Model the fold of this input.
Amino acid sequence: MNNFLDNIPKLRVSSWVEDGMDWLTDTFSGLFKLIQSGGKNMMDGITDGLLFIPPILFILIIAVLAFFVTGRKFGLALFSLIGLLFIYNQGLWDELMNTFTLVLFSSIIAIILGIPIGILMSKSTAVENIVKPILDFMQTMPGFVYLIPAVAFFGIGVVPGVFASVIFALPPTVRFTNLGIRQVPKDLIEAADSYGSTGAQKLVKVELPIAKSTIMAGINQTVLLSLSMVVIASMIGAPGLGREVLSALQRAQVGNGFVAGLSLVIFAIIVDRLTQSFNKQNR
Amino acid sequence: MKEKIRVEHVTKIFGRNQQKALKLVEQQKSKTDILQETGATVGVYDANFTVNEGEIFVIMGLSGSGKSTLIRLLNRLITPTSGNIYIDNIDITKAKKQELQLIRRQKMSMVFQNFALFPHRTILENTEYGLEIRGMSKEQRIEKAEQALQNAGLLVYKDQYPHQLSGGMQQRVGLARALANDPEILLMDEAFSALDPLIRKDMQDELLELQANVKKTIVFITHDLNEALRIGDRIAIMKDGQIMQIGTGEEILTNPANHYIQTFLEDVDRSKVLTAESAMVRPITINTEHDGPKVALQRMREEEVSVLLATNRQKQFLGYITADDALKAAKDGVSSVTSYIRTDMPTVEPATLLQDLLSTISDSPTPIAVVEDHRLRGILIRGVVLEALSSSTQEEVNTNE
Ligand SMILES: Nc1ncnc2c1ncn2[C@@H]1O[C@H](COP(=O)(O)OP(=O)(O)OP(=O)(O)O)[C@@H](O)[C@H]1O
Ligand SMILES: [Mg+2]
Done:
């Protein structure tokens, strides 16, 4: 039996994939270079802009924002104030801003791509049947697998980091948009149809507003997933807090690793609570 | 009389194996047999009828008989498997998407059983919806929507959201939303079923009044025979997707087409069907736990009555108080009317049949309280009860006009 199995020649899947990748990289190399340089310039610009704001002003703005979106409560505002001051105090402010830009960029791209895909999925069961397994695949893959095509297309740096984060963070927004629209009660759809709404009118005036809080929950998850890619993306040279964690790890510096990791957690909590509160407020 | 809606041989079958299912219905197989054999459900089979301009056409039938399917075929929320439906002689089964949207915008509006108000829109924005869809300018549509809310007596609530309103009010908004469009045809799928009996009667009156003022063509689904007889010019009775009989209330009552309809109408002798609940009116009450004689007198003046029903905070029925007694209490200077409450008022359950109450009513000097689990639900006034009992003959005269 074993012999029989051994007699089947090994399928050359890995080399096929490699060939495919080579073809893609060759054919679109111009495009990839353009995205790489354009994206890098844009993101550096944003990070520089953020660094131009005096840190104390930035911290206060975040704290005041937290105070108002949480419904005039002090909890998150105080946490943001102390947490961000701590990060500044540890000399990680530049890294924080780099991470912020990376998360912001990947999240926005994931949302811009994810919501329309989710809408298409909700409108067509055929599209849903095709996209769903792809999303499953994307979510079960370990995040750093996406680093391989990212490096192949864009080399190293922040742009491939964003690319890998977008792929990893995209699924929740797509899924929740699809779910939210499909969950709109049938009688409301009938009401919209019975007044002669076009498909677009129905989408904009009824379906999206009603699905909004579900979609926002998906966006919240997308933001957190792209945050979780920060360390992984630093493996291919994306700057930020992740790089600090990684270098501490490589040099076995427990203390530095702890501080950088803690800073990441603080940032994640602030981002999570802020996006959640935005959602609640809008309801 | 102008014909507004014409339905010709319309059939709707849900699910797979539609052709096979169609053959089986033609062979008079029952709905459950067809479902078992083919997996297809017969929604409506071979429906034929016309509705005239300005008519209220009522569809009745047991649950699952295909009423909702039939009414949704009329504005093509559901597309028929076969057959033709003409609205003003335009065949909507052949209409293209845009034509259909135009017809829905201009000619017909629908009112839903569960209101189907948009939760994220205010009452005004809900009422504007149909006009907004048509592309009417903001000022114009606000003006029209406000007018429709004004007519429904709901203008003060315009900036509230649906969940802030009671069920009865929400349904009035649903009707106002439909009427703001000024449609020629109103489709109403059990529009009043979710309402309690008193509000329901008010709504029926409103609909009849509306019908008298601005002639709309109305297709109305109900489970309730009394409602059907009260508002329907003609009634269609459905069973298992087929229309069994169409006619005026009187025609159906006196000449049921078959045994099924006879049993369906079994209790139609109106005095048998009418219950205390359906004839009761809203009681005018005082809460003896915090209202004193001054309040009682004030309320009697305001409501122009000489008797108030007394309840406690939990709405439990205690008795009644007369104007004379309240005056005496006020003169005596007491702050509570508890000791002036009279308890000799008869009480009945909501489900009591009116005809069993005839002797009680004529013997009692006072009205009768309708009480359920000790709680006061309404009050029966002799004039109203007698009118309700005699109105069946009246209505038959009306439908014969
Ligand atoms: N979308 C659908 N898919 C499959 N079957 C359906 C669908 N809609 C309705 N049916 C079936 O068609 C039949 C008629 O349903 P319909 O809703 O028209 O009944 P109804 O008379 O309005 O009942 P009710 O009084 O309970 O509202 C039922 O057997 C139902 O199961
Ligand atoms: Mg129904």
